[in-house]
Amino acid sequence: xxxxxxxxxxxxxxxxxxxxxxxxxxxxxxxxxxxxxxxxxxxxxxxxxxxxxxxxxxxxxxxxxxxxxxxxxxxxxxxxxxxxxxxxxxxxxxxxxxxxxxxxxxxxxxxxxxxxxxxxxxxxxxxxxxxxxxxxxxxxxxxxxxxxxxxxxxxxxxxxxxxxxxxxxxxxxxxxxxxxxxxxxxxxxxxxxxxxxxxxxxxxxxxxxxxxxxxxxxxxxxxxxxxxxxxxxxxxxxxxxxxxxxxxxxxxxxxxxxxxxxxxxxxxxxxxxxxxxxxxxxxxxxxxxxxxxxxxxxxxxxxxxxxxxxxxxxxxxxxxxxxxxxxxxxxxxxxxxxxxx
Length: 341
Ligand code: HEM
Known about the structure:
Layout: E1 3-4, H1 7-15, E2 20-21, H2 44-56, H3 58-63, H4 65-77, E3 82-84, H5 85-102, H6 108-113, E4 120-121, E5 127-128, H7 130-145, H8 151-157, E6 159-160, E7 163-164, H9 167-179, H10 183-198, H11 200-208, H12 213-224, E8 229-234, E9 246-250, H13 251-255, H14 289-306, E10 309-312, E11 317-319, E12 331-334, E13 336-340
Bound molecules: protoporphyrin IX containing FE.
């Protein structure tokens, strides 16, 4: 596997879309359309991203803070002595906030039922996407009959370079709206509470100075790098388009590059100029960056106000499988906490 590592090299590759193209389709086991605008290069990329921008702009997302806070408070108030964070707090928060952001609160329970991955993995480890295919088809069929002005309703009638989007393009954009901020934000929220359970000095500092929470989130997103790598087609090495040669951009290596970060394996509250690229770099930089940061900030603020302390229970299931970075939890299958008021 050709992995591009280090802050400088990853940034350079992420900028050079002619050599490292995003024109590909991943997850072929579970979908037969591209996730958009992720898997396309300019000029289509630019136009598709512009279509989605109104729901993800910093200004729009900031207006949602009071509603996000209500969601976080309701969830946190419902907990008793023990809570499973990945599903009961993180995933609930994510789908309910997306219901508000996208204007589709009626779909929240169905989104929740898919779990943190969007795809459902069976007992044999095989992934399935048919529930999502059914949802996308039913949603856009319904929108053909009854137009709406929510995010999918607007995509349904939107134009790209003077033509309507195809069904597969609509599926690809809707899919990424649903999938982009799930396991990534689950990891960020779970990882933050996991760290504060293990580091009481940081817990006390954040309690005393909650204005440090946004910087703490930046440090956690750097440390965790919830989307550790993404692939590109190396156009210079690909001779047969049927057999693309891939290159992997290792965001996690950039975020743990010792030339940029002092003791990158440490989580520091006083890290100055945190030049991480956990949300990507260049044209494909995460469109959900403001949404993810606001969700995490609101959850941490409310959580820290409500609970004085918490500990990780042994029933938790964490994976540490990032080859060069085994000290980073790569996955929280479940995070059980015992809380103290
Ligand atoms: C901690 C949370 C998140 C992390 C770490 C993260 C990370 C990333 C990264 C690294 C990329 C760039 C991929 C590449 O260059 O190939 C990306 C792109 C993207 N993300 Fe996120 N993401 C997060 C949350 C979200 C949320 C909340 C949403 C929306 C609901 C979202 C939607 C997207 C979309 C649509 C793209 C494609 C952008 C484009 O191609 O122009 N992400 N994300």
